[in-house]
Model the fold of this input.
Amino acid sequence: MRYFFLPFLISLFISTLFANESKVCQKCHPIIYEEYYKSSHKNASIYNNPIHAAMWDKHPKDDKGYTCAKCHSPSDEKALKEGVLTENEVQVEEPISCVYCHNIKEVQEGEESNTNITTGKHKEFYTAEKGKKGSAAFETEKSWFGLLKEPKSSPYHKINYDNENFYNGNVCMGCHSHVNNEHNFDITMLDAVISEKDKNSCVTCHMPQVIGSKVSINETKTHAFHGIAGIYHMNDKMGDYIDFKVTQKPQGFDVLITNKSNHALFGQALRAGILKATIIRDGKTIVLEPFVFERVLAKDGKEVMPWSADSLLKDTLIYAKKEVHFSNALKAGDKLTLTLGVVRITQEGAKELGLEAGKEFTKFRILKAEKFDF
Ligand code: HEC
Ligand code: HEC
Ligand code: HEC
Ligand code: HEC
Ligand code: HEC
Done:
């Protein structure tokens, strides 16, 4: 056993001497790593996300440099501390690394944005697991070789199950709470409120338990999905948290949308949600005018890029509830289909950023579709 593990541990030791710590985690957490690798968190830098790159390109520059690093690539210390951007391994492979998230001790509230307070410990991580809460730091034994006899815990790092922020979702709020521009105007509008009464948290909805072991050393049935359920992955599953109720009216019909999450939907600048409706009547399909949920940022009554905005032209986002009216009257025998989806950026946004060629960016991603018979 010992001889089997020795080369493995040596290779681990060597790989920790270089950048890309997430690659070290991959050795024991291969499924989580694979999911992470396709996630928006791994792809948050200008080198991996063309929308972010185009926006930074157009953004006015000053001596503070690349301020986006605070949330888009905090693992790159030079970018974070000095605002200096270079195409290095961290930017490309792990702009928001495994270690970074699992090091978040607390979240400090701020006017422009919140700030993550991290421990900087490379071998001690926070996580949440109900049964183990209160057990303080989950100590591993001192010697790696002694440890191999006790495969339950990690031979590589310590685990701390005691950080409340990992249980209530507050760990996400250092980056996701708000992003205010120079005019003190929030350009993301997540408007999230974390409450003890909530049945679900940021983590249970966006990192649900899915099939596959969380670690290769001992088999577990499930693990927390690190690809992030949302716009890119498992998007149709997110529809479980959205309800439609249709009410017939003399002049058309109303759709009441109930949002069961603890935040507003589609608030990110240049993003839009779209509700499509079609009626099948006497074998013919009638396509109704879609409703668009968006928050249009403006200055002096004209749509502008996020950094210039100080007001709104329109806000049709879905907060807790939203009623949408369609002016087509329904008849007996009608079959109505409602489809709610989201586009990463609107056509206008894509044009503004010079990204019209990338169909991926404006693709309609379905969150929920439901049929109603009348
Ligand atoms: C040598 C193998 C190994 C390496 C390398 C490794 N881990 Fe682990 N990790 C484990 C084992 C074993 C567990 C214990 C799982 C358990 O308690 O059931 C664990 C548990 C965890 C947990 C807590 C899971 C839980 O719910 O108990 C986190 C978080 C974690 N690892 C993060 C990381 C990160 C981040 C890295 C890379 C910097 C990493 N691990 C590298 C083996 C490893
Ligand atoms: C306080 C944290 C924070 C800062 C600072 C920040 N962002 Fe973001 N940004 C986010 C978060 C969180 C998201 C994801 C929001 C969502 O999906 O709703 C995001 C999303 C984006 C998106 C949308 C990406 C996509 O693929 O749809 C763009 C573009 C973007 N940011 C550009 C920037 C630029 C440019 C800067 C620097 C000038 C910046 N951000 C600074 C937190 C931040
Ligand atoms: C270090 C900052 C940071 C932390 C911490 C963070 N995020 Fe993000 N998140 C981002 C940024 C930046 C983006 C946008 C990346 C891009 O597209 O450029 C993003 C994108 C997202 C998106 C939208 C895109 C998608 O994949 O659907 C969701 C949902 C999300 N994060 C959920 C979470 C949750 C849940 C947590 C807490 C467990 C969390 N994030 C923690 C920075 C962060
Ligand atoms: C955006 C922040 C974020 C990033 C990046 C991140 N994690 Fe996590 N991770 C979390 C949170 C939050 C949890 C707690 C999930 C829960 O409550 O079950 C978690 C849970 C875990 C667990 C325990 C799994 C379980 O099912 O309980 C392991 C192991 C883990 N992470 C390893 C990693 C590794 C390895 C990476 C990089 C490949 C990584 N994490 C990247 C936020 C993150
Ligand atoms: C009850 C489930 C639920 C909870 C709890 C929840 N979300 Fe969401 N979230 C959703 C749904 C549904 C969407 C819409 C689908 C999408 O856009 O990915 C969404 C969308 C998002 C987006 C993309 C927003 C955009 O601009 O389109 C981000 C970022 C996000 N959530 C972060 C969070 C954070 C951070 C928390 C914790 C404060 C959280 N979510 C809690 C269900 C939830």
Q: What stands out?
A: Residues 15 and 24 are 7 Å apart (CA to CA).
